[in-house]
């Protein structure tokens, strides 16, 4: 499909109800013998008494294919049908919540790295959160993890101690046993212990590859070395688990390197701030919250300035394209009045509002195949 009005590169649409991140946990539940209210069948997994779900932040399917020599074990698991998609935007908070809840972003409501708190002129950063926002109110649906636990599955999350009780963790993973583990060795030991229960699902998260990609880029030596470490971790984990336990390796999104010359700073281009009351989202996928009556002018200006570097659409158009799945009424005002999805390696930065973001090399959030396609590897 071509999503850019008047031409441009093809975007990869989210495969909600088929092979998206929102379908992973319900599919594992089915493989464990628990059907979560007839969730659509798209991802078929082999039956097993216990599953380990290992999510590697930032390990896109195209990156794994391109750099298979640095991850020989994980590459060996890749075959026909070994890919799925992130949701939109292709960013960590949105993806982890789709994974944990079994819901598309339009239902769970974490619609980007940052999004407007309705009725205010403030943004909620979904990674760092805001103590004034109750994560249960913000994301009120029971999680898929919690629903499996309620159905009798022993569900454990093995993650860094600093994430225990965070807003994002509460929104996406509540209802399960949380085990803090900061090092690879203790993560593997905790996973092996938790997966001894039957039936069980043990979720393991690794954020280091994403951090490395942001700081150094996915074409860097540092990123390739980190990928090799992830590969070794996955292989060691598989070897430590009994043969009856299945391991499923996924990612939350991919990443692209954005060079300086491919970036547009909204604070340096005349007119780009006009009519924009609040700038949200992130560099590869912007939410623009507009002043009253300014939507048409904002769309026209941003399309003129960006040209073939991005797709600029209204909220209604984005929803009509199915980017967020079915959007619930309470989630609507969190979405930008206008949305900007970058093409190729471009980025929309703000030296005033998001100065740190402009220091990053690797970025994600848009609908290119490099960002949207994720591995789904059964080991």
TrEMBL record:
Lineage: superkingdom: Bacteria
InterPro entries, sorted: Alkaline_phosphatase_core_sf (IPR017850), Phosphodiest/P_Trfase (IPR002591)
Protein name as it appears in the record: Alkaline phosphatase family protein
Organism of provenance: Nocardioides renjunii
């Amino acid at each position: 499909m071509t999503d850019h009005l008047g031409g441009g590169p093809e975007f990869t649409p989210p495969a909600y109800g088929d092979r998206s991140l929102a379908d992973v946990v319900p599919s594992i539940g089915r493989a464990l013998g628990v059907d979560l209210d007839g969730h659509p069948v798209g991802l078929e997994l082999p039956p097993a008494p216990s599953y380990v779900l290992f999510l590697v932040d930032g390990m896109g399917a195209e990156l794994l294919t391109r750099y298979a020599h640095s991850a020989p074990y994980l590459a060996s698991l890749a075959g026909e049908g070994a890919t799925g998609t992130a949701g939109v935007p292709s960013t960590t908070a949105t993806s982890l919540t789709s994974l944990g809840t079994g819901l598309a972003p339009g239902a769970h409501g974490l619609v980007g790295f940052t999004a407007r708190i309705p009725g205010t002129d403030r943004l909620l950063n979904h990674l760092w959160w805001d103590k004034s926002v109750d994560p249960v109110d913000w994301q009120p649906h029971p999680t898929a993890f919690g629903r499996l636990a309620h159905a009798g599955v022993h569900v454990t999350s093995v993650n860094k101690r600093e994430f225990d009780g965070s807003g994002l963790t509460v929104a996406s993973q509540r209802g399960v046993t949380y085990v803090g583990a900061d090092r690879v060795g203790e993560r593997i030991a905790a996973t092996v212990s938790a997966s001894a229960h039957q039936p069980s699902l043990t979720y393991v998260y690794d954020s280091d590859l994403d951090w490395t990609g942001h700081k150094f880029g996915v074409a860097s030596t540092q990123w390739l070395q980190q990928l090799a470490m992830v590969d070794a971790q996955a292989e060691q984990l598989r070897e430590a688990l009994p043969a009856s336990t299945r391991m499923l390796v996924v990612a939350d999104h991919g990443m692209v390197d954005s060079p300086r010359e491919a970036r547009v700073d909204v604070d340096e281009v005349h007119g780009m701030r006009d009519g924009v009351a609040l700038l949200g989202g992130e560099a590869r996928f912007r939410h623009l919250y507009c002043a009253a009556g300014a939507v048409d002018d904002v769309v026209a200006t941003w399309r003129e300035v960006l040209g073939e570097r991005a797709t600029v659409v209204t909220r209604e158009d984005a929803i009509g394209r199915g980017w967020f799945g079915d959007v619930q009424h309470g989630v609507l005002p969190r979405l930008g009045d206008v949305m900007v999805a970058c093409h190729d390696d471009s980025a929309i930065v703000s030296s005033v509002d998001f100065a740190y973001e402009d220091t990053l090399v690797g970025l994600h959030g848009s609908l290119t195949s490099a960002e949207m396609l994720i591995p789904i590897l059964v080991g």
